[in-house]
Fold this protein.
Amino acid sequence: MTTAEKALEIEKRDLLAELATAREQVLTTVRGLTDEQLGERPTRSGLCLGGIVKHVASTEEAWMRFVLEGQSAMSFSLPDGVTWADIEAGTAREYPQWMTDRLNDFQMLPGDTLDGIAERYEQVAARTEEVVTALPDLLIEHAVPEAPWNEPGTVLSARRVLLHVISETAQHAGHADIIRESIDGRTTT
């Protein structure tokens, strides 16, 4: 193994370990709660613990698809005749399915359980490990899809995507800790 190959393997290992730590922080906040408690919104935020777990799982899954497939894995297209201004104003005559799915990710829906959402997150984590481990390098790049929150012409490498997923997961672990403390006084950090 060359020095460059060894460096790549170490970098992949370290990034995956950091992501695993952030994931564990999120999952630690939901342990010992009931399915009903996972849907509670005890703060002024609209976030609930079950929704946070679902969101970070979906986000990680989507970004790994982006690493493999590029823009086509993350379409933010709107229905014919609907504009971003309509969406932002709340006057759109219809909303795209991806937007509904994203909103549903932030809440506990009928049938959602702690076991179910934790199992899905573990499956997403295992898939991320497979994807990252199999990458020939972390320099693979794709342009991000068009959306108001993406700077036009932005290109992200697999490395940058992993850093983003780590950051997003860690940020939501903090949100989850505050919500957990509001539910039962328990802190997890």
